[in-house]
Amino acid sequence: METTARSAASIEIGGRSFGKDRFFVIAGPCVLESEELAFTVARTLRDVCQGLDIPFIFKSSYDKANRTSIQSFRGPGLKAGLDLLGRIRADLGVPVLTDVHSVDEVAPVAAVVDVLQTPAFLARQTDLIVACARTNKPINIKKAQFLAPWDMQQVVAKAESAGNKRILVTERGSCFGYNNLVVDMRSVALLSRGPYPMVFDATHSVQLPGGRGTASGGQRDFVEPLARAAVAAGADGVFMEVHEDPDRALCDGANSLRLRDVPAVLRALRDIYTVTRKHVNAAR
What we know:
3-deoxy-8-phosphooctulonate synthase activity
């Protein structure tokens, strides 16, 4: 993927470097279900990543506005959600990422979090991309399920037009018929050749959108093998939704990783990154 301007290989977030020279992780529960769950998952992920020396960004949503069913749990909302995310950031000393769904949310969210994320479904919403970029905060732009990897250069160019070069680009699978996604590792390789750090969303990539009628399904067993393949193919970091008890999660539990499984998964991904990085860099 080529873009209109080149950028530095790394972005500083929360005092640490996130880039093409070190494996990193973005992880947390899909949505803010409760203060207790959010703090437990954030604290555990922080400690695991510190022990493995992996840069970490905590992720959770204050509002899941892009659900299929109106009955789906959406979260605590903007005000209460940002309050909780701000306390996690301050109390645990971790950088925080959350997604924004409309332009009017951008300013209040940017005042609290370290990274703004644009949802995959909204990858073509020019006003939203530009508004996020104009904050000059780091932004994580997710590739839409309906876009080819090379189309992302146009999306990234929108952010660059606002003068922002602090960009992450995330692959999250592509539509494959009805209620199904497929991960094409060619997309990972292509996106990783761009100037910005490339992230693989290991849990949304195994989602079965709308697969349960009023909710999405998922294939949790494929999270780790796809993550391993993506890191070997060129992903600089991995995005994962994590829950203490995914089978009881209020959102995306079917494709969320169990918290107790995280240490072994991250250790394997870090090791794969170390072994394959010189070959990935040679191909870029």
